Amino acid sequence: MALTQFVNPFIGTQITETGGGHSGNVNPGAQTPFGMVSFGPDTRGSGQPWGYGSGGYYYSDTTIQFFDLTHLNGPGCRGQGAVAMLPADTATQSLSSGAAYAHTDEAAEPGYYKVKFGNGITTELTATTRTGTMRLTYADAAKAFLIMNMKLNNSGAKYSNGVNPSLVDIKIGADSKSISGNAVASAFCDGTWAQPVYFYATFNKPLKSTSATDAGGDVATLQFDLADADKTVDFRVGISSVSIDNAKLNLDTENSALSFAEIKKQISDNWNHRLNTIQLDLSKPGAIDKLATPALKTAATENLKKFYTAFYRVFSGPTVYSDVNGDYRSMKQNDLTAAYDTLSVRDTANVSQYPFKIDGKDAGYKTHYSGFSMWDTYRSGAQLVALVAPDEASEMMQSLVADAQQCGAFPHWVDGSEDTIPMQGDHALNVIAGSYAFGAKKFDLAKARDFVRQSVFDPTSHCNNKLSEGRNADKPALPGYLSLGYIATDATPAWNASSATVEMITSDRSAGAFLSKLPSASSDQADIAGLFLRAKNWTNIFDDSASQIKLRAKNKAGVWQNGNFHEGTEPHYLWAFAHDWTALIGKLGGKAAAITRLNTLFSFDNSKPFKGTEPTGSNLNAGEGGTKFYIGNEPSFQTPWAYNWAGAPKYGQYVIPVIMRKNFSLNPGGLPGNDDMGATSAWYVLAALGLYPVIPSEAGLAVSTPQFSGITLWLGNGRKVRIGTDKQAMLDDVRYISEMKLNGAVYQGSWLPLEKIADGGQLKYTLSAEPTEWGAGDALTPPSGPGADYSKATAAPPAVQMIQ
Fold it and tell me: How far apart are CA 37 and CA 71, in angstroms?
């Protein structure tokens, strides 16, 4: 099916409409699924290292500063934006001031971007995995300029006014038909190493003048020799982290023969292939026309656009980093003490240098990936990518293993070949365990095991001097965590001790779960048991004596302190460790008390939660300092499904579609927060399916109401899962499950082990307009506990016949 018609790349390019205080920070440029190149526009945005437009584009801006070839999808920090260029009608055009445009003269679809400037110049962009093609149509053949400035990028915290000129270069080829050089993508989010981006470009029209190239060798102004009858220029460019020669090789291999139109069609076909891994019946030709009213038809179209735009963003990262010959820039930094602007270029690595075995047979990987926003994606995106694209997810996990071999340990947030620590914790363990659980099996499990064990047991474990526990610290936090069972506020520094403890608990559970599923598990039993015990360390920062029972911080002496949560508050993090929800519910006073606590979080009227006024969008997106639910950031993502463990799935079934309807829209401000390399978009997709990986490292899904009546989910093994409902939940506002069947047999648990559908299957739901008690009995409580048996539907045998 032609599903790209339902994608709107401008959703998420503006500050959110419903509170939260952040922008989606996505870019509408042209990118293949997981592509190295994201060829798109850069606008000024907030102009700050953190802020609106961190992905390079902000919808409110009225000028485009330049186009460039690398973007991150939805980051909280600015980054990338390398190889800046802008068509102009004068040789003196400043890229800093940019060119004016109107949104009425702008368009985008998957793999294609187009804009017409106020000066009449039209720019069209498309891409292959490692190359971009730009078609320029000038208004005046005598004023056909292209300005390239290697000093500019979407600057991060370092070199906020541009990059160090000594690190960049640009040179016009002797044939006057090419241009090459290198730019720099500044270090991401307080990173310590600027990334070289080499490029090689060709153009199909002769040059009239190049005399404006500056003496420093970092800015070039090209003037094309055009005729009035043909005022177009096709500009093709390849990039590489390794060399100009490799950039040229990427260009010659991927983008030497096809026309602009052929490349545009190729990338559109590629996107349609990816998007068709989840097929909604409503997207079939003629399906919307069969709906009864114009209002339903409009609503159906809007829902399809929200769904497929979200699914499109899921494939924005991680991104290809290796060249067509397998080369890429190593993570290894030889001199760990050098100043930022004196760091030498890191060595070249190749995928062939990291062979491994699968089931005793020689194996390896073909593509190295970067762009890992792991604190964000471990809660949604990693599992979804592994489920629908396990081969690519396996290569991504092998990339992390290779990174660890180079820099000494698993990295934290990978941009290019740099590791940064925007958030506390050791999130790679969650990503690796979750990806493995959901289908990514083809990577070096032996070395992954070694690095997982190193991360959780060795206090000195570090990637380029960045400690594995992910504290921006002078001293390791792991020894204190191991001795106390929590990270104390008088660690160095005290910042975010409470949330850092929660993150450590989650990664401990992930490490134990991953080790327990490996062929080597029998030799790790004592360590697995110890890690599962550590995964209950949340009890050490749970204050039973507080007037409001809650997570709190402690100092080394055990004195309670308030706060210390990163980008959130205690209500946001309370439900962040889904692997032990039954124990947490017990601590809160039982199921009724937990439901009251959750209802308060979601702004329900406890006297009439289903009949009262719905929570507002702002109450469901309270922001980092709020005490209500916060869909705009990852720690709260799994919380709506906590009702399943509290014996009241109906409450989650009520609020999930409210969140989807009120906090996601088709407008530029239609994302509730940063998309964070597809993490927020993945939440929407999984919520629409009614299947959510609440425990990042566990091969299972919490069940809620599917929002579309007919869904075909194609798994990476070629099998399909058919999800059907008797009513349109989202269109008809029929929210509640009264019966669920798996392959024709009644299934009453609200937890679905992945193995039940791993080889395909059929889920069929009967829905109700009124709340039901489906999944509510004590006997139907899902499994819970760090080492629980999650291959079962329930924690205890149910009273009715079930599938087990």
Answer: 8
